[in-house]
């Protein structure tokens, strides 16, 4: 705000007229006052007319839009469940009005970007600090398409060094230019990604020169992840051609990948052999793989699972059938009551089940797919009769031999596709996301 006010003054705008050109919105009263006082040395009394102490979404709905030529901001990163009403309802309504469909995974920075975009006059510009998740998360897929439909040019600046000291969140700078009067799906938006090693590599160079170095990417107006923009156009085109070629096919053609068993409380449901014996739960368990470290090779056989169990690993799933639930043994009833004393049944995922101790979606897969990887996508043939927890994905073949499906995933094409389609975390971890199981 201070830099913008000083720039307007340098262009000859008088302090009294600057409130007609500059607006700030801040929900925290103390911060709004601090911003006003920061402006006062340059603007005097006019500073009192610039910063609105308001919920951004409520303020947005009460003003005429589009209203601005430029919007600069650092929206908050708040999970859907943590964002209070009525602010959340306002944010979701704005997204709906713009033709988007938010859900319970939508972080609140997403509607901030949507509202900011809708606030721009034709030709307007947007500059925001956003979480790096914009490049890859599924809940931002609609937003990526929305942005490429609304702007002539988008630049994303990423950095291996954190932009802000002591900040745990990895962020990128989103610079969008040339807002369109009307969005169009055939807009020839120029999208470029600039990757820097250090913050100094960004700040020590003229912005125009920095952005001109980036190669404009050939975009598709869809929800593709923007991670692919780390590749050059030749590589992107090659990957797209391979994806559509007759010699390749998607995993979904031959098999389905689903999440592992969601117990809601592994402490209660995932047991060692000694625990099964001590609590008298024989006959109520199913063989289980509870951690990816338990999958050592290309196949898990029955002997492998027996060895894991003998070594004290928690590889038994408490899997009470509906028939068994109608006539609980004394020891099983005692174990359930002990879990209730510890309030395990009050956890969200347990509380929505009736009864809470019946775990859904327990089936034995043809193979296991690692959810988190660091060097190469991994799949393991399942010949053990075990299922897995949700730390590991489950693969079910559609008719093809499971071993052939798994063998054909060990290609460089699969590895490259995983890098583009997966979700990158710090420390070199890549997560291959799957949809939430129904009911959660």
UniProtKB/TrEMBL annotation:
UniProt cross-references to Pfam families, sorted A to Z: Eco57I, M_Eco57I_C
Reaction it catalyzes: a 2'-deoxyadenosine in DNA + S-adenosyl-L-methionine = an N(6)-methyl-2'-deoxyadenosine in DNA + S-adenosyl-L-homocysteine + H(+)
EC number(s) given by UniProt: 2.1.1.72
GO molecular function: nucleic acid binding; site-specific DNA-methyltransferase (adenine-specific) activity
Gene3D superfamilies to which the protein is assigned, alphabetical: Vaccinia Virus protein VP39
Gene Ontology BP terms: DNA modification; methylation
Annotated Type II methyltransferase M.Eco57I C-terminal domain residues: 223-433
InterPro entries attached to this UniProt entry: DNA_methylase_N6_adenine_CS (IPR002052), M_Eco57I_C (IPR054520), MethylTrfase_TaqI-like_dom (IPR011639), N4_N6_ade-DNA_methylase (IPR050953), SAM-dependent_MTases_sf (IPR029063)
Keywords assigned by UniProt, alphabetized: Methyltransferase, S-adenosyl-L-methionine, Transferase
Residue ranges of domain Type II methyltransferase M.TaqI-like in the record: 52-151
Sections of the chain in a coiled coil: none
Top-rank EC class of the record's enzyme: transferase
Family: Belongs to the N(4)/N(6)-methyltransferase family.
Stored PANTHER family: DNA METHYLASE (MODIFICATION METHYLASE) (METHYLTRANSFERASE)-RELATED, DNA METHYLTRANSFERASE YEEA-RELATED
Protein name per UniProt: site-specific DNA-methyltransferase (adenine-specific)
Organism: Brevundimonas abyssalis TAR-001
The organism's taxonomic lineage, starting at the top: Bacteria, Pseudomonadati, Pseudomonadota, Alphaproteobacteria, Caulobacterales
